[in-house]
Known about the structure:
By secondary structure, this protein is mostly beta strands. The chain contains no helices and 17 strands. β14 (about 160) and β15 (about 170) form a beta hairpin.
Amino acid sequence: MKRLSFAGLGAFAFGVGGAIALIATVPFVSQVPGVASLWHSTSAYAEGVGGAIAQNVKPQGQLQLRLEAEKQVVAQDQQGKQSKKWQPLKGQAVVQPGDVLRYTLNSENKSDRPVKNLVLNQPIPKGMVYVLKSVSATNGTKVIYSIDGGRSFVENPTVKVTLPNGKVETKPAPANVYTHIRLQVPLVAAKTTVKATYQTQVR
């Protein structure tokens, strides 16, 4: 068994010359005995004019990030029929190898101005494996992935595999090499929330 600790998220939006820009590092703490740093951090930023990132500017509004986790459980009714349900994980949560977790990230724009080009980086926790094609997102969100620790991102990661005959082929990257998910949200309108979910499995 592994024990997870969950903590909250928060981020702030900033106004720059009439445009909205955001830069923040959002901590998400989860520690499991024997598995160091399952969660590093969630980072979020929105680009300002000309793609520049605004820093050290006076807060004008707020973009609030909230990350929730659920564990997939199998329930059985009186007739013996099984169904899969999601059980919220809070505080000290116990998970076991093979358990599937679903994370829901809500990005709420509490300001009176839209936030443009919001980027949310989600590292895959150590001790977890990303469940392929499990991302679901709203607002025309584009999803790209990293298999090199967040240095580069593409829509469909690939790896080169050497076959027994010595020939090298390019194949889709296996789930266990995914390291990060990046969500690119073109627009978060004022007073609205963007939602994204994805799943991981405990190794």
